[in-house]
Structure formats: structure tokens, C-alpha cells
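User: I'll paste a sequence; please echo it back and then give the predicted structure.

Assistant: Echoing your sequence first, then the prediction.
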Amino acid sequence: MKYVVLFLLVLLVAGCGGGNGGGSGGGKSSTPCEVTPDVSGNPPDIAPLEKGKAYRLVVKTNKGAFTIALDTKTSPCTTASIVQLAKKGFFNGTIFHRIVPGFVIQGGDPTGTGTGGPGYKTVDTPPETARYTKGVVAMAKTMDEAPGTSGSQFFVVTGADVGLPPDYAILGKVVEGLDVVERIGKLGDANEEPTERVEIQTATVQ
């Protein structure tokens, strides 16, 4: 089943984005993340991020680079998982497989089909006030999964306010290179397919 972000030509419930890209206090998070495997086998342990530290994910593509300030406060498990995956080089060589002009660009699938992931899921239920405005980065999920469910597929909002309901875990927000995101966001056709290959060459944590 594909991981999709609902794109409807009707008004959807909207709300506001969470967090400021960091927690408060020092040391590691004391709350372990619950990890559910997609397939048989043992899910990995997700190492908690350091509270109070700001984390950024620098995504270098063949169309330019952009930087995401991770929202560790609103989505501690999602951000910890993405950081762990990025440090392992999980995203390197993957593509933006779905581009919907004026809506989102979506990537993070190792298969490039819209059905792949890391083999496990985490959950960070977004606040009811969550809004998905231009530059917000959130996690894609299947329609039957609980709000805030995350694997590895993420989307970057390219519309001013796309009116999505608060169902998608907030990964963070683009703080550098939004012009790159906007350029990539124009490279989609009527079938939501990219008209050019947009590859994530590296995704590194700062």
C-alpha cells in the first residue's frame, strides 16, 4: 500500500505546526520510543536525541540543497528515527518519487515506488493545532494507519497552506534552501510523477 498524503479539491480540516526544533533541559530523553516492525524480525532500538540540542538535516540533491530544522519537541521519536537513518546513509541515492505542484514533494522511500520504508514504524501524534504550510516537513503514512505514524517517507509542503488534517507527524521545517524545494516542486506532472529525476545524494545531520 502506498504512503500517501491526501490531496483533495475540497476544504480539509486544518490546524498549526508544532515545536521549535528542540527540547528543554539537558541529557537524553527519558521516554523510550515504541517501535513496531513492519515485517517479522526485531525492530531496532531508537537512540533518543539529546534534549535541548538543535538538530538539522541537510538534504543535498542533484537540484540543490535544503536544510530542515528538526522538531524534536513535537516529534521526539520521529526525529530520533530520521537522525538514526540519516547517519546510516539510508536516504542517500533515494529519489523524490512523488511531486505534486503547489502541494508537496515526497521522498524517503528506498524502493522509489511509494510503498517502501525502513521496516518499522514509530508514532508521534501531532497536535490538533498542526498546520501544514509552505516549508513544513512531515511524515507520509497509509490511510489506515493511526495519526502520527512514521516510517521513512517524508513530504515537504510547497503550497502556502495545503489544508491537511493533523494526521501527519511533524518532522520539522525548511530553514535554508526553500527556493530549491520550490524548484523541485514544479517538476511534477498531472499524475504526480516527477518529470525529471530528483535524487537525494546525501542527507546529513548537523
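The helical segments are 76-87, 178-184. The two ends are 33 Å apart (CA to CA).
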